[in-house]
Design goal:
mainly alpha; 2 helices; flat
Length: 89
């Protein structure tokens, strides 16, 4: 499965399971507002994780010790971007 627009396939824990593609559809102003609020919540989480990564003293047991936090930031950023793009279409 390939990226489609701002949506990307999400791999599961099982490598043999097919990837899943999520899409959002909104019809009413309330749904659009909820979608916007979700994007803002994800951006706030990105900001908090980024600040935590910059300010905390983290022991470095290996060269990939911060990868999970950085992956979470990347995923939340990508999701927020997709949600914001969906609100203007």
């Amino acid at each position: 499965m390939k990226p489609t627009g701002s949506f990307y396939p999400l791999a599961g824990d099982d490598a043999e399971a097919p990837a899943v593609l999520f899409a959002y559809a909104v019809d009413t102003p309330e749904q659009k507002r909820a979608l916007h609020d979700e994007a803002m919540a994800r951006l706030a989480a990105v900001s908090s994780l980024s600040d935590a990564l910059l300010t905390m003293q983290v022991d470095d047991p290996g060269r990939r010790s911060h990868v999970r936090v950085m992956e979470a930031i990347a995923i939340l950023s990508r999701d927020a971007k997709g949600l914001m793009e969906a609100t203007v279409r």
